[in-house]
Amino acid sequence: MRKAFDKAVRQSLPECDLRYLRAWRLISDGCVRLREWSRNHCVAEVASGSEAGLIYDVMHDPRRGWACTCTDFAVHGGARDFLCKHIRAVAWVWGSVREGVRT
């Protein structure tokens, strides 16, 4: 059932919207772990949703912006405003923690 749903979603949404859906799945599957954070800085680990044992490092610095060790970010990270699914997931979790909302 999940595969059929995923296929239907992939066919109907543009790639940028799929990243939002994939980010939400990473959060709901418990793949995001904040290692350190403050109001302006964040370092996190995101477990791959598809490859067991693979962990991506995600960082945010107010001067440098976002960075991720995934291939998607390595390829597209230079593009203006590009955020991979790992960054989107960490941004949501970090935002919730900063605002005092439990995730």
Structural class: alpha+beta
Rg, rounded, reads 14 Å
Give the helices and strands as they follow along the chain. Answer: HHEEEEHH
**Major sheet:** 4 strands, antiparallel
Low-confidence stretches: none
Sheet with the most strands: spatial strand order = 1-2-3-4
**What count of helical segments does DSSP give?**
4
- Overall, the morphology is globular
Overall pLDDT confidence: 84
Please tell me the total number of domains: 1
Please estimate the helix content: 40-55%
Strand content: 15-25%
Query: Can you count the beta strands?
Result: 4
| Terminal CA distance | 26 Å
List keywords for this structure.
alpha+beta; 4-stranded antiparallel sheet; 4 helices
Account of the protein in words:
This protein is α+β, with helices and mostly antiparallel strands. The protein has one domain. Helix content is 44%, strand content 22%. It contains 4 helices and 4 strands. Strands 1-2-3-4 form a 4-stranded antiparallel beta sheet. A hairpin with a 3-residue loop joins strand 3 and strand 4 (65-68). Helix 2 packs across helix 4 (85-98). The radius of gyration is 14 Å and the shape is globular. The protein starts with a helix and ends in a 5-residue tail after the last helix. The model has no long low-confidence stretch (mean pLDDT 84).
Please render the helix and strand layout as text.
Elements: H1 2-12, H2 15-28, E1 32-37, E2 42-47, E3 55-61, E4 65-68, H3 71-76, H4 85-98
Antiparallel strand pairs: 1-2, 2-3, 3-4
Helix pairs in contact: 2-4
